[in-house]
Design brief:
mainly alpha; globular; 239 residues
């Protein structure tokens, strides 16, 4: 499994694309937080709320871009058959792909800790709410892990990386914001709307971002990842 994981990481960083992805993510967030209109410096309060609101939308594009080649590239080049000859089970291959891509996506988040320490050092008062910031970073990690599971699943359905990329974005958007949007339809009563909203990632991400780790939110993320692992396994079984 770890050999597949290391191969994913090595392959991603073997070209400039991997480094460009990280730089673009940091640049966009940095510009929005510190340069553009209504930035943190103008706001006057030590808070990373704007980053934690913006980051999921950028990750909706970033994570599918990272995962789109996971199985699509193998299917296109015909190397998946070679991968099957190795002493690895289908589950170990999927897990290796998942953890490799998750590591890459997590490395993208790691440098953003600079934002936390920068704002904390510039603060003249109490500073950032550390508990809420930790909760938000945990939420972002779980968000990235779920998007990674979705991206790998979509990558197993097509040898065309662009198709995998587009399908992955659509499903990520559906799970992140789609159920929330549906829950706001006027004719739905409050109780039904609430349960529909609970199906979406954003509902659980916002809960964790408040600094409260509820087992129901953790179960949601783990269950969603598990469902996409099972779909990926079923898909590869039929190849």
């Amino acid at each position: 499994m770890w050999s597949v994981c290391k191969k994913e990481v090595r392959q991603f960083f073997s070209s400039l694309v991997g480094y460009i992805v990280i730089v673009v993510f940091l640049l966009v967030n940095g510009l929005v937080l510190f340069v553009f209109e209504d930035n943190i410096l103008d706001f006057g309060y030590a808070s990373l709320d704007k980053y934690f609101q913006l980051a999921p939308w950028i990750l909706l594009l970033l994570v599918p871009a990272i995962t789109m080649n996971s199985f699509s590239g193998e299917l296109k080049l015909g190397t998946y058959e070679i991968l099957q000859t190795k002493p690895l089970s289908r589950g170990e291959i999927i897990a290796g792909k998942f953890f490799g891509n998750l590591l890459i996506s997590s490395l993208v988040l790691l440098p953003t800790l600079i934002y936390f320490f920068t704002i904390q050092s510039l603060s003249a008062g109490v500073g950032i709410d550390t508990g809420a910031a930790i909760g938000s970073y945990i939420g972002l990690f779980l968000l990235v892990a779920t998007f990674t599971a979705i991206g790998i699943c979509c990558s197993s359905f097509s040898s065309n990386v662009i198709i995998s990329f587009i399908i992955s974005i659509l499903i990520c958007v559906l799970f992140y914001f789609g159920f929330t949007a549906i829950s706001k339809i006027d004719f739905l009563n409050h109780e039904i709307a609430y349960y529909i909203e609970m199906l979406g990632i954003d509902f659980h991400y916002q809960n964790i971002s408040r600094g409260v780790l509820d087992t129901r939110d953790l179960i949601y993320f783990l269950s969603t990842m598990g469902i996409f692992f099972l779909i990926t396994n079923h898909r590869l079984k039929n190849l």
